[in-house]
Design brief:
With 221 residues, the protein is mainly alpha-helical. It has 10 helices and 3 strands. It is globular, with a radius of gyration of 17 Å.
């Protein structure tokens, strides 16, 4: 199942923050393409390396790593998920709270990856941890929404809880498999712990911040 759209009928305002986040990620990726052979050095400088973070160094990379991607498939997949699911969550939270929510979920995701493999020197990059938080909030707020998904050459609509639930199940299974291997923290280039951590953070923050209530309910005098 590959999501390509969802129900936006109840959105009351333009998803400015979601669009800005997508734009920033794309701009950074264009810069990555432009620097050519210096890309590896760029990733090591701005990616979140668990070993260094666990020793109190380069803590800023927990944020900077959210805007660095490893290739076209990486950024296209992440930005599609953010574009599809981010606008609804932003509309429910409001722009400022959504931006704070996004960053906090990204931080939680990065720390989850560090906790899983604190001795790893493999840099963690990508927006997927923060976007996992968006998915967590979405399933709390809009679990009954219909999501358009691509099945091979066919498009159909399924409930959001099914799409996101299936995705989340994969992440938690993969995280568990990573924990039980000899090299915890190394997962074939995919930061599953970050996905799981961001998803849990998104659910908790959505509940804490009152995301289950509609905007009109939250702002009534």
């Amino acid at each position: 199942m590959f999501p390509i759209g969802d129900d936006n009928r109840d959105i009351q305002s333009a998803p400015v923050v979601t669009r800005v986040l997508v734009g920033l990620n794309v701009l950074v990726f264009v810069y990555e393409l432009a620097i050519g052979r210096s890309l590896d050095r760029f990733i090591m400088a701005w990616g979140a390396i668990p070993y260094r973070i666990s020793h109190g160094h380069d803590l800023y990379t927990l944020v900077s790593s959210m805007f660095v991607h490893a290739g076209f498939a990486h950024i296209l997949g992440n930005m599609l998920y953010l574009w599809v699911f981010g606008d609804n969550v932003e509309d429910r939270f409001g722009r400022v709270r959504f931006l704070i929510f996004y960053i906090v979920c990204g931080l939680a995701a990065g720390l989850a990856q560090v906790l899983l493999g604190p001795g790893s020197m493999v840099p963690s990059i990508g927006a997927s941890g923060a976007i996992s938080g968006v998915l967590g909030a979405y399933i709390v707020m809009f679990r009954s929404n219909r999501v358009r998904v691509l099945w091979g050459y066919f498009v159909s609509e399924v409930p959001a809880w099914m799409v996101i639930g299936f995705w989340a199940l994969q992440q938690f299974i993969a995280t568990y498999a990573t924990i039980t291997t000899a090299n915890a923290g190394e997962s074939g280039g995919v930061a599953y712990a970050a996905h799981a951590g961001g998803f849990v953070a998104g659910i908790l923050l959505a509940l804490i911040l009152g995301g289950t209530r509609r905007r009109t309910e939250r702002y009534m005098a």
